[in-house]
Amino acid sequence: MIENKIQSAIKPIISIYSKIELELIEKIAEHFNINEEFINSDYWYFEKLKELGGLNSETLKLLEEYTGKTKKELAKAMKDIGISSIPVDQLNIATQKNALLNPENIIQYSYDEIQKSFLNLNKNIQEQVRKTYTDIITETYIKTNAGVCSYQEAILDSLDKLGDKGISILAYQNKNGLVRNYDVVGTVRRDLLIATRGLAGKVNEEVIKESGNHIVRVTNHFGARTGDGGEDYTNHAWWQELQFFCWDYDGKATEEEKKLPDFMKHCNYGDARGIVGINCKHLFTVWYGSTKKEDLGFTYDENKEEYEKTQKQRYLENGIRRWKRKQVIANKVEDEEGYKKSSIKAKEWQDRLNTFTEENKLKRDYTREYIKGYKNVTIKEKNDIILLPNYQEAIIPEEKFTEYALNPLKDKNKAEAFEKALGYNLSNSNKLIENIRTNINKFNATEKPDLGYGTRYEIIMNLTGENGKNANVKTAWIIDKDTKKTKMTSAYVTSKKWKEGNNDENKNVWYCDIKRW
Predict the structure, then answer these.
(1) In 3D, which of 26, 90, 120 has the Cα closest to residue 333?
(2) Does 71 or 218 have the greater pLDDT score?
(3) Under 8 Å CB-to-CB from 424, ≥6 apart: which residues?
(4) pTM for the full model?
(5) Among the ranges given (3-17, 78-92, 337-351, 455-469), the one the predictor scored with the smallest mean pLDDT
(6) Tens-place pLDDT, residues 112-144
(7) Maximum alpha-carbon separation in the chain
């Protein structure tokens, strides 16, 4: 099915712009810290305006960095879709009539057009990043100057809006007056779908004109949108498997052909809201057979119900993206409370979507949920603890203790640290492992910078040892970037308390290292 080809082809480009959007949001958020010193509103406002030049340079540099990758993926996508769109059977018939079709010209034209669109998009992104940043500082200045709220409250409110909408690029108003804002990824997806589906339409349009025929049939799919429910372009479900009179381009159309519904009028070909538009998975092909409508295998009401399910799925996907964005922003501005809340909410929405798609046998589209920089953490709401991802299956190899941490022949001082503090040695290493495993979900997992091997976490546990004494054990973990498995990489006795996870002081520390394997 050509639609599957389209979705597969545009996925790498959407992924690129998803990264761009989140990096830009992070760059905006980096200019604001809820814990920074706030002298007065006038001074703060002018200082933030000075930083705008740096943000502009960072935005331009980021877009230039990704431009080459985007061009390469665009060219590949348009070629794949253009070739896959050619209806071979119909083209064979057309060829028998001495038709000449050059899909390369159509593909090149469509590529040139989408290239222009993306150049304009990049300019628009630069403008909207500036606008988003200046809106935040202006709103904060007005609120703090008027005494409406504190600096921290004003910043958090503005950043919360940024998390809700992302960087708004395009606004679309429907006939009911409802305005829909598209963020960077939403705009890219919209432009790509219009271009790629439009390319598929152009290829078929040329085949139809070369064939000497004037009748097209519209394909079908389960879950087509129903629009107003009438026999017009808003109701895509009505089109399915119907034949239409398309174009009298050669002046040879028969009166019988002209009696069929008009393709341009009913399907609104060429409009973003019509056939092969942004929200349309239908395609049209030249038709030589009967004008009788084929059985679809499902009723109109069944199709409408399926469409409504897919719309709810889109709603849940957008909710996941919203809360993931908020988590990334909260992490950048050091908003611990916001980070915990957004992590909980993201997980809740993911669970809702998972349940909904399973119950209704829908396929998840993870590109609609993906947010670069989002960390899939598990929150234990009762004690407000951030848990280590996949802690239930975390790997704690015994030999890493017997050969390193508890082995006096390897390092006497490190082995003595565990024995004196907690009573663990080579003879009861299995009990230490069990103690760690039992307590892994009782203390906060603090994320650490990724050094290129995978996401790292640190957990400081207060353990009761075999000797009845209590001591703090600092453990380090990594989610391997290749295997995705969670492993412990080091453990040592420390004087640091688990609640002071962000304190970098390490006094009177007994240390025993487990090398990364």
Answers:
(1) 26
(2) 218
(3) 406, 418, 431, 432, 465, 466
(4) 0.61
(5) 78-92
(6) 877 888 888 888 899 999 999 999 999 988 988
(7) 99
- Residue 373 backbone zone (phi > 0: left; psi -120 to 50: alpha; other: beta): left
Angle at 256 (CA atoms; ends 251, 260), nearest 5 degrees = 95
Residue 245: closest CA among 287, 279, 307, 201: 287
Q: Residue 469: how many CB atoms within 10 A of its CB?
A: 12
The dihedrals phi and psi of 370, each to the nearest 5 degrees, come to -70, 135
Average pLDDT over residues 401-413: 83
- Indicate the length of the chain as a whole number: 517
**SS3 for 476?**
strand
Give the tokens for residue 348.
């809740």
Q: Which DSSP category does 428 fall into?
A: G
Over residues 433-490, the pLDDT tens digits come to 999 999 998 888 888 877 778 888 999 999 999 999 989 998 999 998 888 889 998 8
Strand partners, 457: 447, 477
Map residue 492 onto helix, strand or coil: strand
Q: Tell me phi and psi for residue 341, to 5 degrees.
A: -65, -45
Quote the pLDDT of residue 1: 60
CA distances from 205 to 26, 185, 211, 323, 516 (A): 44, 29, 10, 43, 59
Structure tokens at 271: 């409009």
Phi and psi torsions of 196, nearest 5°: -70, -40
Per the CB < 8 A criterion, the answer to whether 454 and 489 are in contact is no
Q: In which residue are the tokens 């234990």 written?
A: 380
**3-state DSSP assignment of residue 7:** helix
In DSSP notation, 28-54 reads HHTT--TTS----HHHHHHHHHHTHHH
Tell me if 96 sits within 8 A of 32, measured CB to CB. no
Q: At what angle do helices 41-50 and 52-84 cross, to 10 degrees?
A: 50
Kindly report which listed range (52-66, 229-243, 296-310, 495-509) carries the lowest average pLDDT score: 495-509
DSSP-derived letter for residue 391 is: G
Residue 226 is encoded by which pair of tokens? 């129903």
Which string of b and e fits 349-384 if b means at least 16 CB within 10 Å? Answer: bbeebeebbeeeebebeebbbbbebbbebbbeeeee
Question: CB within 8 A of 369, min separation 6: which ones?
Answer: 317, 320, 321, 324, 350, 353
